[in-house]
Amino acid sequence: MTFSDFNFDEKLTEGLASMGYIHPTPIQQMAIPVIMNKQDVIACAQTGTGKTAAYLLPILNNIVHSEKRHLNTLVIAPTRELAQQIDQQIEGFGYFLGVSSIPVYGGGDGAIWEQQKKALEAGVDIIIATPGRLIAQLASGTIKLDHVEHLVLDEADRMLDMGFYDDIVRIIKYLPTNRQTLLFSATMPPKIRALAGRILKDPQEINIAISKPAEGILQLAYSVYNEQKEKLINILLKNNEYTSILIFASTKENVKKLDRSLQKIGLTAKAIHSDLEQVERENILREFKNKQLSILIGTDVLSRGIDVDGINLVVNFDVPPDPEDYIHRIGRTARAATTGTAITLINPLDQRKFFRIESLIGKEIPKVAMPEELGAGPAYEPEKRTYEPTSSKKPFNKNRGFKRGPRSSGSK
Fold first, then answer.
1. 79 in the same domain as 61
2. Tens digit of pLDDT for each residue in 348-363?
3. What does pTM read for this prediction?
C-alpha cells in the first residue's frame, strides 16, 4: 500500500512523495480512511508508529478542500515540546498546501504570550496547544472555537497523568458539539475509556500492538549500586561508537549532577530541565536534533516529547516509575525500522520495578557484567526484594501484600 491509495489532494500526494513518504505505517493504514470518513476515533498506538501523520494528513486534506477557511482544527498535547514538534510536522506538510498553524504553550516571558495572541488574532487553520495556556487564551477572548471541525487529543494518557482531565473537559465546552474528535493514546487505562465515552460519538476503535519495544532495539541492563552509576555511565560513553545519545534520569537533581559529571570527562552533553528558560530548552533541543550535540539528558518529559531521527543509544540512569514509561523512553531509538541500543541501570530498590518491565514486554533483558574496575554489582534477585518505593509509604511484600507497620500505642 502507498499514500497514493488514499486519494489525497494531488498537492498533498506530491508533497508526501517529495518528502520520502511512500508506504504508510499500520496505524496510518487503519486510521486515515476512518478519519477521512468523518468518524470519531479512539486509537491506541505506541510512540514511533507514525500516529501524528495518521491524524494530520486526513485533516490537512480536509482543510485544502474546505470552501471557507477558518480555525479548522484544535490539537491538544501534554507538553510544549510535543506541541512544537506537531507544529513542525504541520509546517513540513503544509508547505505544499498553504495551511497555517501555531503552537500555543506556556513558559517564557510576556513576549511569547503577545506573539501567540497576535498570530491567533490574525487567524490560522490549526492550533496545537497545551491545556493550561489554551485556557488562558480562551479566557482572554483571543481564541474562538465556534467553527472547529476537528479536535485531536494527542498523548491523552499522559495528559490525564499530568492532571489535565478537568482542563480538557473545560476546553471542550468551548467547542461545537458537531465536530470530529480523535483521541490518540499510547495506553488505554479505564480513565481514558471514561473520557472517550464522554466526548466521542460512536468512535471507531483502532489498536496497534502496544507494550512491546521495537524489534530493532538491543536491550541491555546492569545491576548496580547507586554509587557505581555515574562511573559506569562515564565508562560506557567515553570512547564509544554512539553518536546520538539520550539519557533519562528520574529527578531534576540527577539530571544536573549527571550533566556536570559528563562534561568533566570532556563529553558534549547538555541537560534539559524546568529551571531553564524556554528559549534555552528550545536551543538545546535544536542542537541535539541538528547533531551539534551528541548527548542530551532529561527527565520523562522527553520520553514522549522528543522526535529526533538517528538516536542510537538510550540510557535509563534510573529505572522508570512505570513499565509503560520504559516503552516510551527506549522508543526514542530504533525508529522507522532502524536499530538502536537501550541500557538500563538497576539499583537494588528498583529490581522489582524492572522485573515488572520484563513481565510487561514478555522477555528477560540480558544483564551485563560490570567493568572490572568498578567491582561487582548487586545480584539481580527481584523475587527477594520485599521493598520498593511506591505511592504508598508501606513496604510491599509479594506474599502478604502491604505489610503493616508497628502499631502505635493508640492503635485499637
1. yes
2. 999 988 998 888 788 8
3. 0.62
